[in-house]
Design goal:
This protein has about 350 residues and is an alpha+beta fold. The strands form 2 sheets. The protein has a 7-stranded mixed β-sheet with strand order 1-5-6-10-9-8-7, with helices on both faces. Strands 2-4-3 form a 3-stranded antiparallel β-sheet. Helix 5 crosses helix 10. The chain binds phenylalanine (PHE). The site of phenylalanine has 10 residues, from strand 9 and strand 10.
Length: about 350
């Protein structure tokens, strides 16, 4: 074979196979052509065997020609394979009536409940202030919910209008009316130093309106050690509120009364809706009542087996919903319980 014959053979093979590839009817036909052209006994392979008889000069011309032909046939075969593969997928899709141009269904993402978000922020701040997590039962005996907390039998807080009584026959049980039951539960088992927070659900026989719910949440704080005073309470509560509402948050103490603290104070936060100017949320006063607090009454310590001559403490009880309403700009407590996803998904 001369080099001229080689060149002619190359262009013949190219023409022949390009025509055949273009005419191929399906994937198996393309694969057959791939073998016929490039396989071990294929047309190109056979032709290239003739190379060994060429002079060095001719090899230099023929080699690259052979390689170029191989590349161009491979490209043509690959293109046709891809064409049939795509066609196969399209045919399947057409059979199923799938329309890939339709917009995808949005997948709804889950959300944490705004109350959980608020609770988490509160307990995170308190734990940074050194409070440890504690819990108590929802169904509680009167001893821990009232008696040990220095709430006498005739106290109006026990009135059926406030308290849900759970009739168990023998023991008189109640749904706890505050998280303060964790104070008595914890102190009867632990000696100071005590520094706990007790978040949880509480129950009162109130009817549901924009600011009241028969089930709501509190976080109890309790700190008992030597020399704990009202000053510690004020400092810790200021840090707590500033953690929630920023460094400009202001609180004020108002003298109050709770049977289990003496002295007692109601803590107000300057209204974040009107910055203290007065608005419907704060009922024009510029302040919103946030929590009850005070210095733990000596009787309570005594009832729990802690010596009030040695130890003193403070306690507070925060209304979680109220605080969450301030944090999240919500003006109706029912928002938390209706579970309307349009509302929940905003948090
Ligand atoms: N237990 C009180 C309430 O539910 C709040 C409180 C807790 C007050 C601790 C003083 C100390 O209203």
């Amino acid at each position: 074979m001369t080099i001229t014959e080689f060149k002619t053979a190359c262009s013949n093979i190219e023409q022949e196979y390009k025509t055949k590839i273009a005419a191929a009817a399906d994937l198996p036909a393309v694969e057959e052509l791939r073998v016929a052209a490039l396989g071990r006994k294929g047309a190109l392979t056979e032709l290239l065997k003739g190379l060994k008889d060429f002079s060095i000069e001719d090899k230099k011309t023929a080699g690259p020609l052979g390689n170029a032909l191989k590349a161009s046939l491979t490209a043509a075969l690959d293109e046709k394979t891809a064409f049939f593969a795509a066609k196969q997928i399209n045919d399947e899709l057409n059979k199923t009536n799938l329309d890939l141009t339709l917009p995808a269904f949005p997948v709804a993402k889950g959300h944490r409940h705004p109350l959980s978000v608020a609770m988490d922020r509160m307990t995170t701040i308190l734990s940074r202030l050194g409070f440890e997590w504690a819990e108590g039962p929802w169904v509680e005996d009167e001893k821990h919910n009232f008696d040990m907390l220095n709430i006498p039998k005739h106290h109006p807080a026990r009135d059926a209008q406030d308290t849900f009584f759970a009739d168990t026959g023998m023991l008189s049980m109640v749904l706890r009316t505050h998280t303060s039951n964790v104070q008595s539960r914890y102190m009867e088992k632990h000696q100071p130093p005590i520094r706990i927070m007790a978040p949880g659900r509480v129950f009162r026989n109130d009817s549901l309106d924009a600011t009241h719910s028969p089930v709501f949440h509190q976080i109890e704080g309790l700190y008992v050690d030597k020399h704990v005073s009202m000053a510690d309470l004020k400092q810790d509560l200021t840090a707590f509120m500033q953690g929630l509402f920023g460094n400009k948050a202001q609180i004020r103490f108002r003298p109050s009364f709770f049977p289990f603290t003496e002295p007692s104070a109601e803590v107000d936060v300057k209204c974040v809706f009107c910055q203290g100017k007065g608005c419907p949320v704060c009922k024009g006063s510029g302040w919103i009542e946030m929590l009850g607090s005070g210095v733990v009454h000596p009787n309570v310590l005594k009832n729990c087996g802690i010596d009030p001559e040695v130890y003193s403490g403070y306690a507070f009880g925060v209304g979680v919903e109220r605080l969450a309403m301030m944090m999240m700009n919500i003006n109706d407590i029912r928002t938390f319980y209706e579970n309307d996803v349009r509302v929940l998904s905003q948090f």
